[in-house]
Structure of Eukaryotic translation initiation factor 5A:
Amino acid sequence: MAEEFESKAESGASLTYPQQAGTVRKNAFLNINNRPCKVVEVSTSKTGKHGHAKCHFVAIDIFSGKKLDDIVPSSHNCDVPHVTRTDYQLLDITDDDFVSLLTENGNTKDDLKLPTDDNLWKQIKEGYEQGKDLLVTVLSAMGEEQIVAVKDMGAK
């Protein structure tokens, strides 16, 4: 009789890909504590008595801005998140701060909220209210998406 195995965790296989720790450089993306991060500092220690040089990564969470760090033997693999940037035209902003965006194929994307960053929020909201044609940049990684930038394409 076959035993049934039920996984309690997401495999996350398609969300990241492996890369040897010793080859990760500054400004690369890295998965630390299951968060997509951008590496701001890399330092490598010398080979110790147990034979592994260690890489110390200091990185910033690309969505929350929190600083995280990790130490990994340089010969081991670490997870690198698939990070994509997509530009969408802003169509509408609802009363509860959800945005309606025009996708490349002409459909609408209505599942994102305005960013929590006050400055960016204000830029988008004011530009929209002034009738400007706005292009927003959405960063997506590991199943999360967030508006990270806005471009003014001029008046409609």
Summary: The first strand starts at residue 16 and ends at 20. The chain has two domains: 13-81, 83-155. Residues 118-129 form the longest helix (12 residues).
